[in-house]
């Protein structure tokens, strides 16, 4: 009987643990993955002697969600959007950890502590009394430039003045940057308040993770953390970044051209969906870190015109819906472009890197996409957070975070349900076996 009781308790614990895990994994409206393709570029004395620029990428799932959230604000449907998302508000920040020379060193190694995970009342980087427990170089709560854009950047390890930010504050247990470096790793000019690290002799390492904050009125904010990114570095042992070539730039992948309800200069605005492949994300992130840029050009023409014309609109690379105004297609003979006009549109990537070459390098053109009077996709405002179709790049409904393909019946992965069923069957078999053995003893 004791064995039976133990089996039942273990099964119940497994069931509870699996249920909690699944609920936590499925609570966010997008998959929380680590920052992708983290890249570091020492700014060679710009800003301060130690300043470094980090770049990283957001997933298509993330940028699409925050683009839909932005559109909900513009369409005045944000209340319904957040209701569908299951919270009052949600936003994403980034944390950046750093280490000099040896990531496992007790002083200058990774500086992450439990305080990075946040206090229920005082927030990230604080203890239960509200004291900051992170140094000026510990990035624990940095907002994104724009969560609708694929490539993000942040300046880190910047100049430190000769105050608590350098020396720390023992009364509040706040570390200074000096406390996190070994004396032989740096020089500090107190007269000019200038910190220097010789990157021909030392290597600085970085890693990053996302923090998603979910807010509901009346409850403390809930924090969700991604895994840590890849490790990027500058200095002695860092990877050397170089220029790309045209072969590194695949043609853009665009779909779903449709007319919007917007106008610019008395002419309509069209939208289309851009899919950003992993290779392009990686290249754009490295190029941005190293002083270059990859952007997208949108060209269109009224069907029947000979030449394409470059349009104004979205040009920063981001997965999901891009918008372009059609007023550049207007001319003396066509003062405006009616909404039932058939438009042909194509795109290409433009790569600019003045550090390595003059001028620009272009990708091949995307396929040309079009629409006509019968298939204009006029959408004045969707009240949902997305289509709900996991295969739709404009939808926000994420696939199962465990198997990535099941519909998550009752909020749990189908494989968890199968495991639960197996556990129940095992319990039933044990009960019958024990009962049979007990009956046999009685006889």
Q: Which stretches are low in confidence, meaning pLDDT under 50 for 5 or more residues running? A: 1-26, 372-399
Q: How helical, in percent, are the residues?
A: 10-25%
From the spread of the alpha carbons, the general shape counts as globular
Tell me the total number of β-strands: 19
Give me the Rg, rounded.
Answer: 27 Å
Largest sheet: 5 strands, antiparallel
Order of helices and strands: HEEHHEEEHEEEEEEEHEEEEEEEH
Structural class: alpha+beta
Structural summary, described in words:
The chain has 443 residues and is α+β, with helices and mostly antiparallel strands. Helix content is 21%, strand content 27%. It has helices at 2-25, 60-74, 78-85, 164-167, 278-289, 414-442, and strands at residues 36-42, 52-57, 89-100, 139-143, 151-156, 187-189, 194-196, 203-215, 222-225, 232-235, 253-264, 267-275, 293-302, 309-310, 312-313, 320-325, 343-352, 360-362, 369-371. The strands form five sheets. Strands 3, 4, 8, 9 and 10 form a five-stranded antiparallel β-sheet that branches. Strands 13, 14, 17, 18 and 19 form a five-stranded antiparallel β-sheet that branches. The protein has a four-stranded antiparallel β-sheet with strand order 11-12-16-15. Helix 2 packs antiparallel against helix 3. The longest helix is centred in the last third of the chain and has 29 residues, at 414-442. It is globular and about 90 Å long.
């Amino acid at each position: 009987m004791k064995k039976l009781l133990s089996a039942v308790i273990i099964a119940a614990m497994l069931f509870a643990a699996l249920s909690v895990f699944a609920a936590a994994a499925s609570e966010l409206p997008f998959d929380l993955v680590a920052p992708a393709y983290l890249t570091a570029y020492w700014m060679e004395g710009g800003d301060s002697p130690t300043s470094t620029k980090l770049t990283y990428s957001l997933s298509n799932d993330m940028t699409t969600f925050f683009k839909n959230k932005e559109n909900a604000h513009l369409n005045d449907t944000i209340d319904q959007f957040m209701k569908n998302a299951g919270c009052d508000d949600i936003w994403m920040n980034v944390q950046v950890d750093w280490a000099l020379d040896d990531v496992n060193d007790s002083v200058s190694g990774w500086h992450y502590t439990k305080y990075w995970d946040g206090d229920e009342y005082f927030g990230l980087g604080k203890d239960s009394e509200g004291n900051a427990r992170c140094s000026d170089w510990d990035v624990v709560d940095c907002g994104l430039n724009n969560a609708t854009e694929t490539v993000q950047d942040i300046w880190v390890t910047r100049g430190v003045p000769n105050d608590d930010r350098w020396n720390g504050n023992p009364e509040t247990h706040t570390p200074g940057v000096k406390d996190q470096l070994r004396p032989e790793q740096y020089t500090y000019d107190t007269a000019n308040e200038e910190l220097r690290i010789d990157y021909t002799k030392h290597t600085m390492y970085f890693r990053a993770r996302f923090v998603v904050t979910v807010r509901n009125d009346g409850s403390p904010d809930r924090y969700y953390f991604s895994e840590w990114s890849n490790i990027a570095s500058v200095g002695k042992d860092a990877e050397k970044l170089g220029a790309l070539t045209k072969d590194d730039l695949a043609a853009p992948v665009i779909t779903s051209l449709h007319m919007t309800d917007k106008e610019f200069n008395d002419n309509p605005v069209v939208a289309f969906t851009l899919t950003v492949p992993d290779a392009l994300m990686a290249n754009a992130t490295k190029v941005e870190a190293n002083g270059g840029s990859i952007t997208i050009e949108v060209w269109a023409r009224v069907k029947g015109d000979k030449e394409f014309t470059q349009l104004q609109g979205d040009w920063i690379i981001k997965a999901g819906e891009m918008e372009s105004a059609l007023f550049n297609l207007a001319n003396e003979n066509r003062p405006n472009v009616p909404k039932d006009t058939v438009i042909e549109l194509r795109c290409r990537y433009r790569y600019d890197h003045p550090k390595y070459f003059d001028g620009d390098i272009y990708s091949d053109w995307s396929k040309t996409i079009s629409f006509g009077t019968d298939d204009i996709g006029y959408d004045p405002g969707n009240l949902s957070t997305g289509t709900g179709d996991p295969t739709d790049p404009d939808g926000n409904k994420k696939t199962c975070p465990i198997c990535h393909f099941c519909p998550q019946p009752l909020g749990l992965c189908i494989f968890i349900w199968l495991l639960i069923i197996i556990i129940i069957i095992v319990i039933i078999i044990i009960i019958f076996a024990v009962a049979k053995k007990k009956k046999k003893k009685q006889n």
